[in-house]
Amino acid sequence: MPGEIAGLAIIDYVIIMTYMVGVLIIGTYYGKYVKSAGDLFIAGKSLPFWAIGMSIVVTDIGAIDFVSGAGAAYKYGLAQANFDWIGSMPAMVFAAFIFVPYYWRAGVFTIPEFLGKRYNTAVQMIAATIWGIFLVTMLGVMLWTTAVMMNTVLGWNHQTTIWLTAGIVGIYTVSGGLAAVVMTDVIQLVVMYVGASALLALSFWTAGGWHGIQERVLALGGEFQNHFTLYLPHDTPTPYPWTGIVFGLGIVLATAYFCGNQAVVQRVLGARSEWDAKGGMLFGGLLKLFIPVLVMIPGIAALALYPGLKEADTALPLLIKNVLPPGLTGLMFAAFFAALMSSVDSYLNSASTLWTQDIYGRILAWMNREPSMKHTLVTGRIVTAAMILIAGLFAPIIDRFETIYVAIQTMLSMFQGPTFAILLLGILWKRATRWGALAGLILGVGSALTLNNAKGLFPSDSPFLFVAWWSFVFSLIVTVVVSLLTPAELPEKIRGLVYSQVLRDDELQQVLKERVGG
Questions:
Q1: Alpha-carbon dihedral of residues 60, 65, 66, 67, nearest 10 degrees?
Q2: CA–CA separation, 312 and 267 (whole Å)
Q3: Three-class SS of residue 241?
Q4: CA 254 from chain center: how many Å?
Q5: What is the tens place of the pLDDT at every residue in 136-149?
Q6: Is there a contact between 42 and 270 (Cβ–Cβ < 8 Å)?
């Protein structure tokens, strides 16, 4: 058809290319402000709350969530929305008032660095290695998700899509660091919300509104009768029983994610003030309330329009292809790229920070070498470039996984419970010791691996929510027991890092001011 190329109108291509070039220009612009490792990794502590909040949202909601979130809603219904409603706002409020102030006051670049200050180098290195491997793996997952969608809808070659995306994101992340990442995230959030809103409105209209969607889905009978139920029974065969949602997600996975995920927390570490750090997390929580409406509802609308899909993850591409007119299709693809690039740049920047500061930096410390500011900056940029290259090479391997979303949640459940346990005790309980944390982390990860491979122990075939909860509880117990059996940490070592001390001791308030240059 004249005016169309590979399923898209020329105007769609113009919109997509304009967006990509614009993001590249804006992102590289911030490179002129990067003079040190602090500028590269935490934006020189200059970020305002509104930029932090918007960046947190698009860091969390990426291309994977657009495709797999809508696909999961297609397959399981509204229960999927709990990952944002129960799994975001309560956890983000908790993070804002309990964890964020201590991270920011400690003046650290990473969460493992905070654990190193609170406990010891061994805990720091283990946590950094786990998170470093996970973040690089996630980069590969994100690149592959985009390649699959572009191939399915437009017929683009997988490798072309992977390296085009990696090239654009890599250039401005290497150049401008966290400042470039956050400011491009602001633009990407706007594009993402506008594109997703257009798809939501037109899919609603095509399916006959909310009433029409309900009628069509309920008429399918069987497993679809619970599609509009927010809390599923404990014995449901789906991965989302209410017990797992409340305990595994609400208490452990969600809180651990927003309190202990380097890719999320790194934004608040770059805040220009403690108020901006807290406000950014809370503003992000407010924006996250709209995500289920923008992502999950179109997935259920797709079920009403296209029942019987063999692959639930094709629901969103089908909607985009069949519902949106020229122009809006390009805008939706720009929104999809925005979701992808905002997550890729965030995970890339955080992965390079972990590998540079917590691993390479500690190796130099053991060698009694003090790197110069220029050396650390150059190393950080080299590591950033290496990470995106490794992720691009790794991306095709993701095709071996059957369900990407469950695979990601399962990976997180392997270590987020134990990590959250030692973080929580480290901030709230002054008696927690380095040996307690080390035992809690190692044995907790071991328990998660054991529980995940125990057949028939849990009602769901994908028991990641239960694994997260019980590995968290086990790590808490181990950390407490071992801490009580080992010598307490010296007061000077944990000064300003434990909640109860800060509340009671006026002298410590002055210490905290000194730590942040107040």
A1: 160
A2: 33
A3: strand
A4: 10
A5: 777 777 777 777 66
A6: yes
- The phi and psi torsions of 34 (rounded to 5 degrees) equal -90, 110
Q: Is 432 helix (H, G, I), strand (E, B) or coil?
A: coil
Per residue in 110-136, pLDDT (tens digit) is 888 888 888 988 998 898 888 888 887
For residue 221, give the 3-state DSSP assignment: coil
Within 8 A by CB and 6+ apart from 64, the residues are: 141, 142, 145, 343, 404, 405, 408
Partnered with residue 4 across adjacent β-strands are 9
Are 291 and 194 in contact by the 8 Å Cβ rule? The answer is no
Percentage of the chain surpassing pLDDT 90?
Answer: 11
pLDDT of residue 119: 92
Task: Quote the tokens at residue 339.
Answer: 């979701």
What's the angle, vertex CA 123, arms to CA 117 and CA 126, rounded to 5? 130
> What is the pLDDT, as a whole number, of residue 198?
86
Q: How far, in Å, CA of 345 to CA of 26, rounded? A: 14
| Residue range of the domain that includes 18 | 11-404
> Does any domain span residue 440?
no
Pick from 391, 321, 346, 388: nearest CA to 149: 321
Question: What residues have CB less than 8 Å from 365, skipping those under 6 apart?
Answer: none
Contact (Cβ atoms closer than 8 angstroms) between residue 464 and residue 247:
no
Residue 279 within a domain: yes
C-alpha–C-alpha distance, residues 99 and 454, integer Å? 33
Q: 234: domain CATH number?
A: 1.20.1730.10
Statement: the pTM of the whole predicted model exceeds 0.85: no
Show the low-confidence residues of the chain (pLDDT under 70): 1-8, 31-33, 36-40, 42-43, 62-64, 148-150, 152-154, 176, 339-342, 397-407, 459-462, 500-518
Question: 370-399 burial, b if ≥16 CB within 10 A, otherwise e?
Answer: ebeeeebbebbbebbbebbeebbebbeebe
Q: Rounded CA gap, 256 and 464, in Å? A: 14
Strand, coil or helix: what is 277? helix
Number of compact structural domains in the chain: 1
